[in-house]
């Protein structure tokens, strides 16, 4: 199981785009994936998918520990076109005061029993719900654009996360929307170097160029991963870094008991499965 938070201290940098495409890419590897929109209150996942919010985090706030697995599964939205499982952000601000850190922890723990991978699109804040998601996560992908304001805010953000007790090894940097201009190369270099300084080292996991097709595809509720090579390669680098790049066997395709009886086959298959639940 793996919990990945997509985060930033600057809005509009491509958090939702990254979260959506990472989710669809991870799903293609055969793993079960849920995309949780914790960009509270309004979020952007359901809108990006062009779907209405019939189910939302609000429904999960109301659940308790004794709820059955079947009931939990009924509180997940499924994208009709590609089968992506997701939970839109909160439906009404009147539910806001009920969403604290403990509730977020409970929601994530429940999802952990149902899915291999939880991808969380988080808010531009350090509220208790956001902090709870950051604390419980295995990896945090900080998304920045290649400009000074975004880079500086996110640099201060990652330093603050470390002071809050977040393990610095969990942090990865995703540089998005890099302009084609020559000067951008030097800015990106500076960002990579500054974030990678020893003592507070954060590795840059992907450098993605601005491509107007990304926004066009989003408008059409599609996935840049399927149509934009530069965005796809950025997401592939993230998958690689998370150890999720290689496909796993789906439940149905897993070796049968007859195969499992042969130690030779089992050993060979194990070698092919880099990660399993
Ligand atoms: N590499 C890119 N090239 C061009 N457009 C991009 C790229 N990445 C994201 N976008 C577009 O930029 C816009 C903002 O992206 P997105 O909504 O993912 O940002 P966000 O960080 O989630 O914003 P918010 O803070 O509002 O939640 C979207 O239209 C998206 O399609
Ligand atoms: Mg967003």
From TrEMBL:
Residues 2-151 form the AAA domain. GO terms for biological process: negative regulation of cell division. Signal peptide: none annotated. Pfam families: AAA_31. GO terms for molecular function: ATP binding; ATP hydrolysis activity. Keywords: ATP-binding, Cell projection, Cilium, Flagellum, Nucleotide-binding. GO terms for cellular component: cytoplasmic side of plasma membrane; cytosol. This is MinD-like ATPase involved in chromosome partitioning or flagellar assembly. Coiled coil: none annotated.
């Amino acid at each position: 199981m793996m919990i990945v938070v997509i985060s930033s201290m600057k809005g509009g940098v491509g958090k939702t785009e990254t979260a959506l495409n990472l989710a669809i890419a991870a799903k293609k590897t055969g793993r079960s994936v849920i995309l949780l929109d914790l960009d509270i209150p309004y979020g952007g996942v359901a809108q990006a998918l062009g779907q209405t919010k019939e189910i939302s985090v609000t429904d999960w706030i109301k659940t308790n520990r004794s709820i059955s697995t079947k009931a939990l599964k009924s509180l997940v939205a499924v994208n009709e076109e590609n089968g992506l499982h997701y939970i839109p952000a909160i439906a009404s601000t009147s539910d806001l005061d009920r969403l604290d850190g403990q509730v977020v922890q409970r929601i994530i723990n429940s999802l952990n029993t149902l899915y291999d991978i939880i991808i969380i699109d988080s808010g531009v804040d350090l509220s208790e719900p956001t902090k709870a998601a950051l604390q419980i996560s295995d990896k945090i992908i900080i998304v920045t654009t290649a400009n000074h304001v975004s880079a500086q805010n996110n640099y201060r953000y990652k330093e603050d996360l470390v002071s809050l007790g977040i393990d610095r090894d969990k942090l990865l940097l995703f540089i998005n929307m890099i302009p084609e201009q020559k000067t951008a190369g030097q800015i990106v270099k500076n960002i990579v170097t500054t974030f990678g300084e020893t003592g507070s080292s954060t590795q840059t996991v992907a450098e993605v160029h601005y491509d107007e097709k990304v926004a066009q595809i989003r408008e059409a509720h599609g996935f840049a991963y399927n149509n934009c090579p530069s965005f796809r390669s950025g997401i592939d680098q993230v998958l690689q870094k998370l150890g999720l790049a290689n496909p796993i066997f789906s439940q149905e395709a897993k070796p049968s008991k007859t195969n499992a009886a042969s130690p030779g086959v089992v050993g060979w298959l194990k070698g092919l499965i880099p990660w399993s639940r």
